[in-house]
Design goal:
This protein is an all-alpha fold. The protein contains 15 helices and 4 strands. It starts with a helix and ends with a helix.
């Protein structure tokens, strides 16, 4: 074939591929818009907006590969601090915007409330268990959702086990709440809004410098946050951190409280057990006597804020994966991987429920709410993660 013919063939291929790619993207956007319209018709405009927010969160998480579990593992195993430093930036920016809004009491006409939780056994044990489970599965709660959208079938199993573990924790929730617990510490109430922002910024900066020092000591330099990720889709973790902070602010204005993921899983476990025909008498379980939980249980899934947003995250990540080269359907899973996913998923669900949330609701949501429990949760969960990673490394070295 001549050079001219080869060029002509390549040109026709490009011209044919481009309209096909455009058609695929337009079709996906139309389907997503249709999904939002259906949710609006079934549950109201507010829930449709939450679904759209879920789309955006899922897209950003997959687009930037913004990971909690992988970042924590790399810090312990490789002394790489990139993801953890990005999380600290996200917390500082989120606190600076959200804390004044919470002090005002409303955003865009919506009354807003913070995540202020007590300190004690349930928080520390729950977070530690969550940190262990996160490394067994290889993902956190938000990671389950966007990786499911990316084609990892293993994460669907993890989601099911997360829901079962969360439901099991609701049976013991009353007992955990009677264990050693101390009053919540709300920085805004103690030192005012700007004092709370300063405290969060100081703690986050301290962790940022510590993680940077550890990495620099190992490698002589640190990876810059603004550098594009080779395993992402061309966006830096700094972009992800800033975007997630802004999306959490928007979530606050629409939902009336910060972004949460794990809140949905006890409800999914309860609804699933009822659908399968199990009569668990949930009305007598302390967890379900709480006003919010009781209201969620009596309503539909589309009426639940966290459920709608979680569905949106999966679909948003799926859309980005299909529009790009990130969609990779993985069906095969080994026996050992299945066992780790089942055990880890149960631990994640149980830990998140007794520990007042996951890396999103307890850590991210707690810190930007000005509650000390967010930082305590982080230390306890990171300790659980570190234990598993160090044990795995020791086993690998022994082999």
């Amino acid at each position: 074939m001549s050079v001219e013919a080869s060029i002509a063939t390549q040109s026709r291929t490009v011209l044919t591929a481009k309209p096909t790619a455009i058609f695929k993207r337009v079709s996906l956007l139309v389907l997503m818009a249709l999904g939002a319209w259906l949710v609006s018709a079934a549950a109201g405009q507010r829930q449709a907006l939450l679904l759209l927010l879920g789309y955006a969160l899922g897209a950003v998480l997959l687009y930037t590969t913004f990971s909690f579990s992988n970042g924590w593992r790399r810090m312990v195993s490789e002394r790489r601090s990139l993801w953890l430093r990005a999380q600290m930036v996200m917390l500082v920016v989120g606190s600076a915007i959200i804390l004044p809004v919470l002090a005002d009491g409303s955003l865009w006409g919506t009354s807003v409330s913070a995540y202020i939780r007590p300190l004690g056994a349930s928080l520390i044990v729950g977070a530690f268990i969550f940190g262990v489970g996160m490394q067994l599965v290889g993902s956190c709660a938000s990671g389950f959702l966007y990786n499911s959208g990316g084609g990892q079938i293993k994460m669907l199993l993890a989601l099911v086990m997360f829901a079962i573990g969360a439901l099991l924790a609701t049976a013991h929730y009353g007992w955990w709440m009677t264990q050693v617990n101390f009053m919540p510490i709300d920085w805004s109430s103690l030192v005012g809004v700007w004092g709370a922002i300063l405290i969060n910024a100081t703690i986050a900066t301290g962790f940022y410098l510590l993680f940077s020092w550890i990495e620099k000591r190992r490698y002589g330099r640190i990876e810059p946050l603004w550098r594009r990720q080779s395993n992402g889709l061309g966006r830096s973790l700094l972009y992800g951190a800033l975007t997630l902070a802004v999306l959490n602010v928007i979530t606050l204005g629409v939902a009336g409280r910060p972004w949460s993921v794990a809140n949905a899983f006890p409800l999914w476990g309860a609804k699933g057990s009822a659908w399968l025909g199990f009569d668990l008498d949930l009305d007598f379980w302390d967890y379900w006597t709480q006003a919010a939980a009781e209201r969620a249980l009596s309503g539909g899934l589309l009426d639940d804020t966290s459920s709608v947003m979680n569905i949106g995250i999966v679909l948003g990540a799926l859309a980005v994966a299909l529009m790009t080269t990130r969609f990779n359907l993985r069906w095969r899973i080994s026996v050992s991987e299945t066992t780790a996913t089942v055990v880890g998923g149960l631990m994640l669900g149980y830990g998140a429920t007794i520990g007042f949330g996951c890396n999103v609701g307890a850590f991210f949501g707690g810190v930007v709410s000005g509650s000390l429990h967010g930082w305590v949760w982080f230390v306890a969960a990171f300790s659980g993660t570190s234990l598993v990673v160090l044990l795995k490394n020791a086993k690998t070295a022994a082999d």
